[in-house]
Design goal:
Blueprint: H1 2-18, E1 26-32, H2 33-37, E2 42-50, E3 53-62, E4 65-66, E5 70-84, E6 91-106, E7 116-134, E8 139-158, E9 165-187
Antiparallel strand pairs: 1-2, 1-9, 2-3, 3-5, 4-5, 5-6, 6-7, 7-8, 8-9
Amino acid sequence: MNIRLLLFAGMLLVSLISATKAGAQQWAVSTNGLYWLTGTPNFGFEVGVHKKMSIALSGNYNPFTYKDNRKMKHWLIQPEYRYWLSETFKGHFFGTHFSAGNYNFGNLPFGSMKDYRYEGSLLGGGFTYGYQWIVGNRVNIGAEIGLGYFHMDYDKFYCQTCGERIDHYRSNYFGPTKIAVSVIYLLK
């Protein structure tokens, strides 16, 4: 099901980009420094489709198992529509985003993840506020936060061996769904 959802999100983004006028497009690539602090490689694309609108697609992937079988394995994809108050890639913006991903977290030194491992998927979305500062001819620094909803479908395991399944859960989460401090490179 997650592959179908990922393909649908990708096709939706391509459709929205193709429906725009080529003359209004400006492209950018980005990376979120906060994800890198957790050891998670990530990359984003954004296209300006109007002087005050853009469409962004970000994704991250962490396939690593750390020392003592610590895990923060996951992938996440977030397409987003942004409305800029000034002009694209400059100043304040508001947006709406969709999120889909899988995760496998456990044996981490905080919360219930000290004793348990959680493996599952999430779907959701929310609203975003952000700001971009121009720091060079082609370089911006951006900050954003998103608030919204995730539906999570997951299994809980005992963590010492991370093997014995305890139970299966479904839960709903309301709160922060996105946070970023990014370096953005504009392709003109």
